[in-house]
Each structure stands twice: as structure tokens, then as C-alpha cells.
Amino acid sequence: MIAQAKRAASPNINPWIVAFIVSIATFMEVLDVSIANVALRHIAGSMGASYDQATWILTSYLIANAVILPASAWFAQLVGRKKFYMACVTLFTVSSLLCGLSWSLGSLIFFRVLQGLGGGGLAPSEQAILADAFPPEKRGSAFAVYGFAVVVAPTIGPTLGGFITDYSTWHWIFFINLPMGLLSLFLVGTFINEGKNGEAKKRSRKTPLNFDFIGFALVALCLGALEVVLDEGQRSDWFQSDFIIFFACISGVALVFFIPWELTRRHPLVDVRLLGTRQFGMCFLMMLVTGGTLFSSIQLMPQLVQNEFGYDATLAGLSLSPGGVMTMMMMPIAGFLTDKIQPRYLIALGLIIVGSSMWTLTGLSPDLSLWYAIWTRMFTSAGLPFLFIPITAASYAGLKGTQTNQAAGLINIARNLGGSIGLAMVQTSLQQRQQFHQSRLVEHAIPSNIHFQDAIRAATQVFEKNHYTAADAAHRAYALVEQTIIKQATLLSYIDTFWILAMLCAFALPLAFALRSIPLGKSAQRR
User: Can you spell out the DSSP letters for 371-401?
Assistant: First the structure.
């Protein structure tokens, strides 16, 4: 196995350097998923578009990212991992420059599609390179290095995006990718070798005839339409909208045809049989949960402090930054333990930590402080490495040859799809629970309620002391009570949503123990 690892990576380069090099581009790509969130209103304003129209800047990126992932394994076999990886970095970097130079919303969306296509091919190639560059007993530590990019980047994205938006222009959230992309290209081109004896070239002469065009079309329709449903569902009132029903049907029909088609292909685009195995199937489900928890929790707290407590974009982003520091501290520990302890126990630990942090957030109060937002995020961040690293390491257990490419693509689909599902779930929960709590609170805002009368009387007196007329003071008192009800309903909806995430972690806990034991330490090395 060690000899195979040396053939797959650069035999004269320390594999830890390989891990660092391939993580640079992933950090850049994952950062771009979250950095644009806080700049949407500024982009919409500068281009004369509505906020809903500007959200297609995010949707177009996610759709393109999801569509290219299943084909990444085939392209890596066609031209070799290194060439495909460098092509993806080049496309991502060039399209980032074009995004920053965009002259209209339409041009920006088009360039974001190109950016998503380039970024979608990065992670599967990197994970496959790491899986082959390290023997099984060292993969946990290797994925810890890679995990810095995947887990930390979304955490600092809102902070960096908020700072750039507040003190510069939104164009720079794309321009900052240029030096990172050029550095990645230089390091990969200099230090990473393609493989041994031109194996990629031998495959490339055969692979084009085996490309599953129909499978690619079906998976592109399935994932692309599903991404539209998840991103636009809340704004379009879900299945009350013909638009959402149409795309949901496209996604469902494409999936129904995709599975039997892939099962009957000699050279399938996606090896769906992997999902039917106990080990990889459980890892896929666990990564769905991890992606959903990671991206939804990253969005909830900044959204809460910005919309309800008046934080600016920079301060809202800063509430997440200490969590990134905590993740960086825990990554080496989680990587070391993954090489020593069975993944199922570490995943269970991660779920307990993250679930407990979500339960802690159900104690939100109207006088929430920045410190409360910071330490609860640090609590959550402490558990994320114990999910991402063991799941990724366990997903490659027992796989051989091109299966590592297939596994890398599917695991990244699970992370992105889980993130999209999680974001859609929490936004739907926020709206529905806010409507529920507001309707219940309004039931008590009636003249016959003594507490309501006392609140109106007290508010009216305050306004009258500030030299308002009696009529104007009464009007303002009713408006103040109404605003208070809305704010209380909103806060309660966040509490309910954090409770849902805590329950999700609790329900996922039994899945962790369904994982098989994998070889560790010396036993892994012998295999």
C-alpha cells in the first residue's frame, strides 16, 4: 500500500507537503461559497437588481458545482488527476477575475457558473490524491490538513466578505482569488507528479469512448433541478408554486431513470453501487448531516445578529472567526485520533458536541451579546472536525483503484447537497415558526388583556414625556408593541430552528454505530 501511495503522488516530496498544496485551492473554492453571502445586497444595489434576483449569484454557483461533481472522476481518468486539477484551478481563477469585472447581473451569473464548474472539480481530485498519497493508517491526519480548508473557510468567509464589503467594494471578494489561484498552480505544477509510467495517458485513449453522456445528462438534470428547488423553494412558497413543482418533477423523474441506467452500464458515470454498501452508504448519509449542520449553523447566527440586533457585516462575521480558531486547534487532535480510534466513536462524539451546542443556542434571549454568539460558535466548531475527518477517512476504507475517484465525487456531493438541504430547511423553519409564534402572541394583544393595557399605557406615557401629543403617543405605543411582538416571534423561531438542528444530530447518532470497523495503525499498514 505504501508503494502504491508513492506511485500516486510525488515520490520525492513529503506527502504532508502534498496535503498542504492541494488544500490551497479547496480553501479558495469553499471560501467562495460563503464569502458572497454578506455582499448580496451591495451587489444587487450596484447593479440595479432586487435581492431575490441577486440570490442567483449563489444559486448558479451551487448548481454548476453540483453538476460537475459526478463527472469529475471521469475527467480525472481521462487526462490524469494533476492536469484535470490544474485545469479546474485555472478555470476557477480566470472566472473569478471575470466575476470581479462583471458589468451586469447577467454577466456575473454567467461567470459564476464557470466558477462553479471549475470549483466543483477540485475537491474530488484532491481527496483522491490524498487517499493515494497516504497509507490508510495516516489518512486521518492527512484529511485533518485538508479539513482545515473545508471547515475553516466557510467560517471566515462571512467575516472576510463583511470586511471587504464595508471597507472596499464587492468586486474584491472575487479578486482575492487571483493570488491564491496562481500560487496553487505554481505549487502543483512544480511539486506534484502525475503518476507512474504514463498510466493516465493509457487510460485517456480508452476513456472517451466510455463516457456516459446519458448518465451525465440525467444527473445534471436531477442535481441542477433539485438545487433550484432547495434555493428558491422558500421564496416561492414551496409546492404552492408551479415553478417549484415543475423543477421538483424534473429532478424526481431524472433520478428515477438515472439509478437503473447507471446500474446497467459497464462504465457508469457514478458507481451507485457504492451507495448500497453499508460502509460507504452510512458515510454518505453522515456527510449529508455534516454538510447540513455546517452550512446552516454558519448562516443562522450572522443572519440573526445582523437582522435582529443591528450588527454590521464585519461584526456579524467576527462572531464566527473564533470558531474558526477553535476548529484549527481541534483538527490535529481529530486527525491524530482518527488514526487510533474507530471512526464511529469519533463521529458519535462529534454529533454529541455539535448537538449540545445547538441545544445551548435554544437559550437565546433578547439581550444577546457578541460574546454569547462567539462562544456558542466555538462550541459548535469544536465538534465539526470529529465529523468531517472520520467520515472522510472511513468512506475510503476497502476501496481500490478508480473507486477512490468515485468515492471522492460522491462524498463531496453529499457535503454540498447536505448544505443546500440544511439551508433550505432552516429558512423554511424560521418563516413558518415565526408565523406560528406571531399568531399566538397576537392573540394576547387585545384590549381585554390587562397586561396588554399596561404595556400600552406605559409606552404612551414614555412618548408623552418626550413631547408627543396624546394621539401621536398612543399611535407610537401600539407600533412599539407590534414591533416587540415581531421581534419576540422572530427570536422564538430561531430557538425552534436550533432545537431542530439539535434533534437532527440526536437522530443521526445511531447511524454512526452502523459503520464497520476499519484497519488502524499497524493493521492498516499490513493491508
Answer: HHHHHHHHHHHHHTHHHHHHHHHHHTTT--T
**Under 8 Å between Cβ of 332 and 152:** no
**Phi and psi, residue 132, nearest 5°:** -90, -25
- Give the span between the Cα atoms of 233 and 250, in whole angstroms: 15
Query: Percent of the chain at pLDDT above 70?
Result: 87
Q: Judge if 1-206 and 270-527 fold alike in CATH terms.
A: yes
Domain 270-527 has CATH 1.20.1250.20: yes
For the chain, domain boundaries:
1-206, 270-527
Number of helices followed by number of strands (H, E) in the chain: 25, 0
Highest mean pLDDT (candidates 264-273, 366-375, 475-484, 499-508): 499-508
* Whole-structure pTM value: 0.76
From 71-80, 203-212, 470-479, the region with the lowest mean pLDDT: 203-212
Q: What is the pLDDT of residue 295?
A: 78
How would you classify residue 310: left for phi > 0, otherwise alpha for psi between -120 and 50, otherwise beta? left
Question: From CA 281, how far away is CA 259, in angstroms rounded?
Answer: 15
Indicate whether 207 pLDDT > 60: no
**Superfamily holding 1-206:** MFS general substrate transporter like domains (1.20.1250.20)
CA distance 291 to 65: 15
Whether 270 contacts 394, CB under 8 Å? no
Q: Could you report the per-residue pLDDT of 324-339, keeping only the tens digit for each?
A: 788 888 888 888 888 8
Q: What percent of the chain has pLDDT over 90?
A: 13
| CA–CA dist 160, 285 (Å, integer) | 31
Cell digits of residue 105: 447581473
Q: What one-character-per-residue DSSP string does 132-186 give?
A: HHS-GGGHHHHHHHHHIIIIIHHHHHHHHHHHHHHHS-TTHHHHTHHHHHHHHHH
The answer to whether residues 391 and 286 touch, using CB atoms and an 8 Å cutoff, is yes
CB 270 within 8 A of CB 409: yes
Tell which residue, 315, 251, 309, 298, has the closest CA to residue 150.
298
CA dist 500 to 288, 429, 473, Å? 16, 9, 41
